[in-house]
Amino acid sequence: MTGTDDVEVVVAHDERATLRVGDVFLKIDADPARTDVEVEAMAMAPVPTPEILWRTPPVLALAALPGTALGHLGEPSIASTAAWRAAGAAVRTLHDAPLPPWPGRTADELGAHLARECRWLVANDVLPTDVVDRNRRIAETALGPWTPAFVHGDLQVDHVFVAGDEVTGIIDWSEASRGDARYDLATLTLGHPEHLDDVLAGYGTDVDRDLIHGWWSWRCLSNVRWLTEHGYGPPERYPEVAVLLREP
């Protein structure tokens, strides 16, 4: 660590917290199984990941990555087109890697989760019923059969770090598993549809954009209650809600 007394709270809620002290990130997770997945996934992933400095459960210490996040959900990205393409290429490298030994959630499990969240959104008047119904129909198109890939599982734009036009690392691997490659692509471009072409150009293979749109709707519908219950403010401020309200 550097000689600093400053402690930055990066994220904190009742499941986990991340603190930054100088050039070290301290991740504190109430569920050691998530940290087990994170450590093993980073060891397997064929893309740059943070250096693990030490682990003393429930704390995992990681070295800070060089560069800055590719962007932030709800804000315009200042990263170059080449950086977004490099991110797409990195994701393709991950998806082409051997599968992790642990499974991900099935389409049936994801569909059941979607149904629960949609019922909650309507019952609590969080969103108009027609908005929920329309996005649920879009989301369900993504729940067909897929060829499993090694997926990050939470590939938010904030989790991809770049310096100039190069990817310097990808963080937060606790949701990594076998899954649909298009879910990662959708998560990365959620809120940044203007960069979807760049990401797919770097990814380098044909991808069904309708299914990416389906995963956009699935992730947004599935996240609103969690954000509400973990202190992220009123739903009308969420970028996810803005995506759901956006006309197709």
Name the descriptors.
single chain; 248 residues; alpha+beta; Aminoglycoside 3'-phosphotransferase, Chain: A, domain 2; 5-stranded antiparallel beta sheet; 3-stranded antiparallel beta sheet; 8 helices; 41% helix; 18% strand; globular
Description:
The chain has a single domain, classed as Aminoglycoside 3'-phosphotransferase, Chain: A, domain 2 (Alpha-Beta Complex), CATH 3.90.1200.10. It has 248 residues and is of the alpha+beta class. β2 (16-21) and β3 form a beta hairpin. A five-stranded antiparallel β-sheet has the order 1-2-3-5-4. The protein has helices spanning 32-44, 81-95, 107-123, 129-140, 181-189, 196-203, 209-229, 239-245; strands at 8-12, 16-21, 24-29, 52-56, 59-63, 68-69, 149-151, 160-163, 166-170, 177-179.
Which secondary structure elements does this structure contain, and how are they paired or packed?
Layout: E1 8-12, E2 16-21, E3 24-29, H1 32-44, E4 52-56, E5 59-63, E6 68-69, H2 81-95, H3 107-123, H4 129-140, E7 149-151, E8 160-163, E9 166-170, E10 177-179, H5 181-189, H6 196-203, H7 209-229, H8 239-245
Antiparallel strand pairs: 1-2, 2-3, 3-5, 4-5, 6-8, 7-10, 8-9
Helix pairs in contact: 2-6, 3-4, 3-7, 4-7, 5-7, 7-8
